[in-house]
Amino acid sequence: MPTALPTERPIQAPGTVDTSPISLTPATGDDLDPIWKAVVPETRTRGNDIHLPISLAYAERLCDAFPGADRQLVRVAIQLHDTGWGRVDEERILAEGFSGDWRKAEIRFEHERQGCVIAREVLPPLGYDDAFVHEVCAIIDGHDTRKEAYSLEDALVRDADRLWRFDHAGIALASGWFRMDPAVYSDRLEAEIIPELLTAPAVAMATATLNRSRALLKTAVIR
Q1: Which Pfam families match (predicted)?
Q2: What is the C-alpha to C-alpha distance for residues 186 and 30, in angstroms, rounded to an integer?
């Protein structure tokens, strides 16, 4: 169940903060495999089959840093948060969701609504109770469009959703969505996305990962 959101920014963590490459710590266990299998069609849109597993790995790291958070709520919410992209008009995703005032694009609200529909479809048959499904949907509904997090779990999902972008795989995908080269997109991550992160562990992970990605992609030279 949701944990009260601390007021400090960035939120300091009582647990261990791992800033090593995310490929070294993929998401653990097989308990979420039935959910993955239930949403395979929804993972084939907008790179979700790359974005969602990497985001889950980051979410588990954040839960390690915040052991008081509801780990299962964070894990399931991040796993399903962007599945709604699989049920909206794919041509509109890039046309509206990644151009202009993209944060306020109607298609972003639509993908949140569809994500909640999917959560309500797949979770109850797998044994998740109504209260848990409600909390998952409360995080999904607004993860892109609501200005503020309402709980610690919501904050961890939001940070995990952003952290994948700093990995070289995230830069490779997302720079194309925003029609930017990797160097310019990396600059945007530093200037715009790091300040949005809510927790100190996420800031540390983002900074370390971005430094590695810039070195790997030679963004100081290829720009």
Answers
A1: HD
A2: 33
Residue with tokens 């927790």: 199
Cβ(87)–Cβ(114) below 8 Å: yes
**Residue 216 CB: number of other CB atoms within 10 A?**
12
Q: What DSSP letter does each residue of 70-136 carry, written as one string? A: -HHHHHHHHHHTTGGGGGS-HHHHHHHHTSSSGGG-HHHHHHHHHHHHHHHHHTGGGT--HHHHHHH
**E strand or H helix at 4, and its extent?**
none
**Comparing 18 with 100, which gets the higher pLDDT?**
18
**SS3 at position 160:** helix
Q: Report which of 58, 113, 126, 57 is spatially closest to residue 81, judged by C-alpha positions.
A: 113
DSSP state letter for 28: P
| Nearest one of 205, 175, 169 to 188, comparing CA atoms | 175
CB 57 within 8 A of CB 27: yes
CB atoms within 10 A of CB 109: 15
Query: Which are the contacts of 7, defined by CB distance < 8 A and separation ≥ 6?
Result: none
Determine which helix (DSSP H) or strand (DSSP E) holds 182, and give its type and residue range. helix 182-188
Beta bridge partners of 38: none
